[in-house]
Amino acid sequence: MLINDIVKKIFFKNESKDTAKKRLQFALVYDRLEVSDEALKKMQNEIVAVISRYFVIDQDQMKLNITRHDDLSALMFNTPIISSKPRQRMA
Amino acid sequence: MQSKIIVISSGKGGVGKTTATASIGAALAMKDKKVAVVDMDIGLRNLDVVMGLENRIVFNIVDLAQGKCKVQQVAIKDRRISNLFLIPASQSDNKDVLTPDDMIRVSKELRESFDYILMDCPAGIERGFENAVAAADEAVVVCTPEVSSIRDADRVIGLLYSKQIPPKLLVNRIVPARVERGDMLSHQDVVDVLSIDLVGLVEEDEQIVIATNTGNPIVLQNNSKAGQAFKRIAMRLNGQPDLAIEVPRVSKSFWQKIGSRISFGKWE
Ligand SMILES: Nc1ncnc2c1ncn2[C@@H]1O[C@H](COP(=O)(O)OP(=O)(O)OP(=O)(O)O)[C@@H](O)[C@H]1O
Ligand SMILES: [Mg+2]
Description:
The complex is a heterodimer of chains A (91) and B (268). Chain A is an alpha+beta fold and 91 residues long. In chain A, 48% of the residues lie in helices and 21% in strands.
């Protein structure tokens, strides 16, 4: 090992391969989610079915998204609520 | 024995599939198994030149699938290693001339003549990939320790699992000095990211270039680390799955070696 490398190890703990590893792990989470369009669609339908038991929602306006931030991925489900369902119809 | 079809795939191109297919095929044949290596890269054939058999091609896999020849006519015997046969790709067609159903049918025939059939997959995940994996029992996924190659490997691993073909990972072109410096992902990093079992580790080796230039099998080169690694991979595929994985290391000087014997002997 060269003196250079030793100095680098002491002062810059973050080696480039660590960055590569983190970026990969994050990218793969996203890739693996993204793969199954069909599953997303199915999940959306199931979520809609559950919410519709409690609220009247505008199905054309709702959105299901996977977003990524620096250190996490999030599933975002947005829907305008038109009204709540009458009490007696609640499950 | 019951014959086994192993597909060598990667997703990303140029990571060493063809090199691995030729080398593992040669090593299996040296263990007295009858082996066919099949070039599934229709339109971009390469396995023939890597093996030094480009001048002997008469028929190809497409001819076989279309019933224009028999297995005995299409299979080209290797010059150096008996029991090793090449089934070349067609150079003039494109990948759509074959279908996965064709390959399932052809593979049935091949199983009758060979113990091992290795399918050299083209890059990508389109029709050529579908054809190569159609009849596979197992898969070897090749990647190099680089982000794009690993990411593509992950995609292929997912596809193989969805087809119920169990994959194992071969990490190729490892440069131990760069791993030690922290500039290259270690095999452990790659395994952590992909969560998959290893079938072997092959280091960057100039002798591969020489062997490819001359069309000779790298596994006959006893001083080639890559050649020896491919031999051990063949053993793992051939009934010794638990053979310990050897990790490529920076070659040390005599005194460093003595030092590591004394302090780390048990783990080396
Ligand atoms: N361990 C290694 N050390 C040095 N060179 C290597 C090693 N493995 C492969 N190579 C070289 O890398 C190049 C690409 O290898 P190869 O053709 O086997 O890749 P491939 O995955 O089959 O490519 P393609 O996707 O185009 O079919 C070749 O020149 C080969 O000699
Ligand atoms: Mg190739």
